[in-house]
Amino acid sequence: MKKAPLFVLSLILCFAVAACQKTGDIAQETDDMYSAYSQALYNLIRDNKLPDGTDAPELTGDVSLNKFAISDIDGDGKDELILIWTNTYGAGQTGYVFAYDPEAKTLRTELTEFTCLTFYDNGMVKALWSHNQGRAGSDFWPYNLYKYVPETDSYGLVGMVDAWDKNYPGVDDQPFPSDIDKSGTGFVYYIMEDGQYDTSHPVDASEYNEWLNSYLEDAKEIEVRYMDLTEENVRTLTRS
Predict the structure, then answer these.
(1) Residue 123: left if φ>0, alpha if ψ -120 to 50, beta else—which one?
(2) Which residues, at least 6 apart from 149, have a Cβ–Cβ distance to it below 8 Å?
(3) Distances (CA, A) of 73 to 33, 174, 221, 230
């Protein structure tokens, strides 16, 4: 009769040991991740090497003017390394998101874009284009919209968006498509889901907003706490 309680006690002890082991494994993996992020940032500061091993765009001043942050911005439960490389020539200004691969013990690139990045708590990212040379005017800036894909642990493009402000002339005497602007906003939009620039299919503001809201309607912007890229700031990195 006493064997049953002993058996139950043994099971409880086994589960407790397994739970402790799992907790220890997670803690070790997190420590390894922060160590990898720190070492990658030291290499960048000292040797101008990006976390993927390639050369960083040429600096035009002090490396500390660039920014970095550690935050779980894709919502997978693990922190990512966000790097904003701005202190370089225009075409080299780049925003990166890196993730730690615990099996390979290396960093992988989740996203490479221009530096103006807005992260949302549902895994979406809005990346403004580096230039606005079209007909969008000053009230709209073109952008790419990305969605986090758990299967690949990376971001996939869901669409590029540009616009035409009717106050700006068309190309080759092409008139503003007022028949498309049914909402009367003075804007039409171009949604390019295949990643190819195409202005042959403008849509009304209502259709554009419906498309955008299907991705961002209930999402909240993540406030990323960036730090200057200095060795002093890198030394402060610890797991929370």
Answers:
(1) left
(2) 155, 156
(3) 15, 42, 10, 22
Classify residue 47 by burial, with Cβ atoms within 10 Å: 0-12, 13-18, 19+.
Answer: exposed
DSSP state of 160: E
The DSSP result for 111-139, as a single string, is EEE-S-EEEBTTSEEEEE-S---SB--SS
Q: What is the pLDDT of residue 39?
A: 96
Q: What is the pLDDT of residue 27?
A: 76
Tell me what pLDDT residue 139 has. Answer: 93
Single-letter code of the amino acid located at 201: H
Please, is 206 exposed, middle or buried when counting C-beta atoms within 10 Å of its C-beta (0-12, 13-18, 19+)?
exposed
Contact 187, 181 (CB under 8 A): yes
The token duo for 128 is: 């403004």
CA distance 212 to 75: 20
Mapped onto helix, strand or coil, the DSSP state of residue 153 is coil
Instruction: Look over the chain and give the mean of its residue pLDDT values, rounded to a whole number.
Output: 91
Q: What is the pLDDT of residue 133?
A: 80
Q: Which residues of the chain have pLDDT under 50?
A: 19-20, 240
